Amino acid sequence: MEINPDNMQLFGIGAIKINATIFYTWIVMALLTGFSAVITSRLSTGAKIPRWQGVLEVIVSFVSGQIRQVIGRDPWPYVPFLGTLGIFILVCNLMEVVPLYHPPTSSLSTTAALAVSVFFAVPFFGIMKNGLWAHIKSYFQPSFFMLPFHIISEVSRTVSLAVRLFGNIMSESLMIGVFLSVVPLFVPLVMQVFGLVIGVVQAYIFFTLATVYIGSSVSIHGE
Amino acid sequence: MDNVTIVAVVSIITAGATIVLGTLLPAYGEMKALIKALESITQQPDASNVLSRNLFVGLAMIESLAIYCLVISIILIFTNPFWNFMTTAGGK
User: Fold this and answer.
1) Is this prediction's ipTM beyond 0.90?
2) What angle do CA A6, A7, A11 make, to 5 degrees?
3) Is there a contact between A205 and B56 (Cβ–Cβ < 8 Å)?
4) A59: which residues sit within 8 A by CB, 6+ positions away?
5) What is the pLDDT of residues B8-28, one digit of tens each?
6) Inter-chain residue contact B63 with A164, CB threshold 8 Å
7) B34-92 pLDDT, tens per residue?
8) Which of A69, A168, A178 to mutate to test the interface with B (most CBs of B within 10 A)?
9) Alpha helices in B1-92 (DSSP H)
């Protein structure tokens, strides 16, 4: 049984091999960029807005509202990064109902890449907001000896972000595979519905945790 | 028993023990967190948004431990490195 979509090679020319992870990531990316480009190409501010613009506005205002609740300040510097992260993971997980689709998030390389981007975004936003010196000083709070613990916590939460998403999505597709070989009817269907719930919850958790990390780095002590 | 059988037996038993302990204890922790959160929501229904978000974050933290155990047991069963080593290179 294949549990890693990295090993499923779909096609390739010579040394360039395109595996399932890359291919389906491209598909999700193309879907998201295509939809956004088409919708934002004819925006209107009149009384009657296009139907799809309303959908996009609901999504964006939900994301910015969530970020505002957690960070407690103007969310707009963080909406592009965090919103893209959340919507990408959500679409990756939800497209699992499509036949022949393997979610890219069930590969540890994808989730590790997402977690690493959060790992670099945390100091980036902290330095953008508070300046370099204040951000470095926050590693030495409350005393100098806390430096190794701050570093350990940064690394370990990156690892846990990656492994949590990977483990949930991978185990769910694995479970569907196992159930398909045991009971081919009805039970895999229920598992798929359950898997949709898991996918939404995991996307929300990844988004919320990234927001919390960035928020804690942006609003350091004494504010 | 030859070496391959020993590796198989130990891997299977360890996978089972991992999944048992790794779901039992995080489930206990999640239970306590959930009880406290529900009590707090019934006492302060206005704060239910903040409470449930913090509950989600905390549950995700606890749950990641269970997920570690799940990943380890899945590795032990499906892509066992020791089994592969024994059957290919050194398991004579």
Assistant:
1) no
2) 90
3) yes
4) A83, A87
5) 899 999 999 999 999 999 999
6) yes
7) 999 999 999 999 988 888 888 888 888 888 888 889 888 988 888 888 888 888 876 45
8) A168
9) 3-43, 48-78, 81-85
Across the interface, whether the CB atoms of B53 and A209 are under 8 A apart is answered no
Contact yes or no for A52/A39 (Cβ under 8 A): yes
A19 forms bridges with which residues in the sheet? A9
Find out whether A204 and A86 touch, Cβ atoms under 8 Å.
yes
Residues, chain A, total?
A: 223
- What pTM does this model have? 0.85
Q: How far apart are the first and last CA of chain A?
A: 53
**How many angstroms away from the CA of A157 is the closest CA of chain B?**
9
Which residues in chain B have Cβ-Cβ distances shorter than 8 Å to A3? 74, 78-79
B46 Cβ neighbours under 8 A, 6+ residues apart: none
